[in-house]
Amino acid sequence: MARFPRRELTERFRADMQHLLHAANSLSEAQRTQPTYDQWTVKEILAHIAAWDRELARQPR
User: Fold this and answer.
1) How many whole angstroms from its chain centre is CA 1?
2) What is the Cα–Cα distance from 5 to 1, expressed in whole angstroms?
């Protein structure tokens, strides 16, 4: 696996998160609450990602 400088990884993460949020915001409430793969809703998946994002942000660097 290629190693990337922290700054580049941070920029990629932020860009990817913006794309994800844009896609999620383009969905209707009904679409966000409809079960998807393995019965998770989009709202649940986003909450899961947010929880892990917060957890990782608390980790010492």
Assistant:
1) 22
2) 13
What is the residue extent of each domain of the chain?
18-58
Distance from C-alpha of 34 to C-alpha of 19, rounded to nearest angstrom: 21
- 5-21: average pLDDT: 91
Indicate if the pLDDT at residue 38 is higher than 70.
yes
Query: CA-CA distance, 56 to 23, in Å (whole number)?
Result: 23
Long-range CB pairs of 34-43 (<8 Å, 24+ gap) are: none
Tokens (6 digits) for 45: 């998946």
> Which structure tokens are listed for 47?
């909450």
**The dihedral of CA 11, 36, 28, 52: what is its sign?**
negative
